[in-house]
Design a protein that fits this description.
Blueprint lengths: L21 E4 L5 E6 L5 E8 L11 H7 L10 H10 L3 E6 L4 E8 L3 H14 L4 H18 L3 H14 L13 H4 L2 H11 L5 E7 L3 H11 L22 E6 L6 E8 L8 H13 L4 H9 L6 E7 L4 E9 L4 H17 L4 H17 L4 H11 L7 H12 L2 H11 L6 E6 L1
Parallel strand pairs: 2-6, 7-11
Antiparallel strand pairs: 1-2, 3-5, 3-6, 4-5, 8-10, 8-11, 9-10
């Protein structure tokens, strides 16, 4: 029995073990990437299309197209599709991002034929029924109206508009009229234009045996490509000048605040160092912003900073909700903490603490076959794989307090930042 009166020894974190992945292509050009883990009784499949918000000709089009796939096919109604997946204990999910749209399936291996067959039917035979589309848009419209009353939603919306430009798809500016102007014909056109074999990648992980791979091959070979594939649209970024922007919300009980600027992409040589710098500032519960603005001043329940990398851009941001009377002093304290990072070396004990936290966070991103598949799916967007985690860990270990001073001056220039507030 261990002696509970003794403090356990601190041991270094272990190196992550990367699971190998395999690739092959179907005859119709679909790329299949799989990670095998025989200890699982299930598999997870992500069917990914280059069909995100960036490719839509009007708001809501991309997200509606992917989310309507389970609302009826030529052979099954929405209720029948739901019953089939429920009967086999399978789970499906739909996601529309800025560049990608995804359809995900988690299923028991013994029911792979039934669940994959139904999944492919949704991709190839969807009819986008009018009644279900009206219900979907009505629900989303109500959700939008509720969100539009929240100051956090308004600051996020305004921040995206300023950073990318109001007309850029990344800004994803939605209004009430967009919910009534979207027709079933437009959704069907987008579906046929972008949900096809020439625009598809499949990630599958778990107990991916030869039988499942053969079922996948047989079923997904049914996907076809259009005769004339859609080209890659070009949308120029039109950022607004840096400065303070306010969104008035007279009935708000509190204010929301976002401060940010262009960030760092995953492929940037400074990415790992900047992640360390961001974590010190506002990337974990014990960060400087939390210690100052939450624990010491009591202005907020929570404040955090983060960096978002995208295929064509990136941004860095601080976000919080605060009492209306503390907006000005909170902004002042945030800039004070940024200036501290630019003027004072991070103490060695704090630096080691945050390095260990960030190291552990990276290990969690690789914890298990499903997590490694999700991580790989993201890294492939930048023509990288999970080896980048090993490189980042070594770069974080090697990063010094002097390096962080340089990075703070280089990337945290307050004159380049947008300050967005919403509230009274």
């Amino acid at each position: 029995m261990p002696d509970r009166n003794l403090i356990p020894n601190i041991v270094p974190l272990s190196e992550p073990v990367l699971l190998p992945y395999q690739c092959f292509k179907l005859n119709n050009g679909i790329e299949v990437i799989y990670i095998q883990d025989p200890s699982q009784n299930v598999f997870k499949m992500d069917v990914i299309f280059e069909a995100g918000v960036y490719y839509q000709s009007q708001p809501l089009l991309a997200s509606t197209a992917i989310n309507m796939l389970n609302e009826g096919t030529r052979l099954h109604s929405a209720e029948e599709i739901a019953d089939i997946f429920d009967f086999y204990g399978a789970y499906t999910d739909f996601y529309c991002g800025l560049n990608k749209s995804e359809l995900s399936l988690i299923s028991l291996c013994k029911y792979a034929r039934e669940t994959i067959t139904m999944l492919v039917e949704m991709l190839t035979e969807s009819v986008i029924p009018e009644k279900e589309l009206d219900i979907y848009l009505t629900n989303k419209h109500q959700e939008f109206r509720i969100n539009n009353e929240k100051t956090a939603f308004l600051t996020r919306k305004k921040f995206s508009e300023l950073l990318f430009g109001p007309e850029h798809p990344y800004a994803n500016q939605i209004s009430d009229k967009d919910f009534t102007s979207l027709s079933a014909d437009k959704v069907r056109q987008f579906y046929h234009q972008y949900i096809h074999a020439g625009n598809c990648r499949i990630m599958i992980c778990g107990n991916v045996n030869d039988t499942i791979l053969q079922i996948l091959t047989d079923q997904f070979s049914r996907l076809q490509s259009p005769t004339h594939a859609a080209g890659f649209p070009k949308h120029p970024f039109q950022p607004a000048p840096a400065g303070h922007y306010h969104v008035e919300k007279n009935n708000a009980v509190q204010s929301s605040l976002r401060i940010g600027k262009n960030g760092i992409r995953l492929t940037d040589p400074d990415y790992a160092g900047f992640m360390l710098l961001n974590t010190i500032l506002g990337g974990y519960f014990g960060s400087r912003l939390m210690s100052n603005i939450r624990e010491d001043k009591g202005y907020t329940y929570g404040i955090h900073s983060f960096n978002i990398s995208m295929p064509q851009n990136s941004y860095w941001c601080i976000a919080t909700d605060i009492n209306n009377e503390y907006v000005a002093v909170t902004i002042e304290e945030i800039f004070k903490e940024i200036r501290r990072l630019q003027a004072e070396p991070v103490p060695e004990d704090e630096l080691m603490l945050v390095k260990n936290f960030l190291y552990g966070d990276l290990l969690r991103e690789l914890d298990g076959v499903f997590a490694q598949s999700d991580a790989l799916k993201h890294k492939l967007n930048y023509e990288r794989d999970n080896q980048i985690y090993l490189q980042m860990i070594q770069q974080i270990k090697a990063c010094t307090a002097a390096d962080l001073l340089v990075l703070a001056h280089k990337y945290l220039n307050t004159d380049e930042m947008y300050i967005v507030t919403a509230g009274k």
